[in-house]
Amino acid sequence: MYMLQGKKIIAVGDRDGIPGPAIEECLKSAGAEIIFASTECFV
Amino acid sequence: MDLEIQQRIKDLTEKHGAENIVVVIGGAEAEASGLSAETVAAGDPTYAGPLAGIALGLAVYHMVEPEIKDECDATVYDEQCGMMEMVLDVDAIIDEVSKVRKEFSKF
Lengths: 43, 107
Hints:
The complex is a heterodimer of chains A (43) and B (107). Chain A is α+β, with helices and mostly antiparallel strands. Chain A is built from one helix and two strands. In chain A, strands 1-2 form a two-stranded parallel sheet. The relative contact order of chain A is 0.36. Chain B is mainly α and 107 residues long. In chain B, 55% of the residues lie in helices and 8% in strands. Chain B is globular and about 35 Å long. The model of chain B has no long low-confidence stretch (mean pLDDT 97). Chain A binds chain B through residues 1-4, 6-14, 16-20, 22-23, 25-27, 29-32, 35-36, 38-40, 42, and chain B through 1-2, 5, 8-9, 12, 16, 20-29, 32-33, 36, 40, 58, 63-64, 67-68, 70-73, 76-77, 79-81, 84, 88. Strand 1 of chain A pairs parallel with strand 1 of chain B, so a sheet runs across the interface.
């Protein structure tokens, strides 16, 4: 627990998996700081 | 992994320090997730992007791994990821990403 607190998060989401904004919302709730979030698209 | 994203990760790591950064990926399947994890930990395995030959050694997890999931608010996780978790091959993804992390992550 608390592994993520104070850490800077880079979220690399996937349009067909879990998108960047979803990762961002979840990790905000864990007390982490998101410094970059994106969503890749392999189409 | 997109070349622009590789460049951003390289720049952010130089700015904030590799020990302070955790990369969380959301790949749809195990092999692609493993490649993304390898790119930020050991360098770009395709030798196409800015991280070719550069082993940042970053800590990297998939969003569905218990180390990450359990730290998030359960309601928020269910709203944002619950549906996808049901369709993803979670066991294969965890197996692949944790294997890469154990081998290449330094933090």
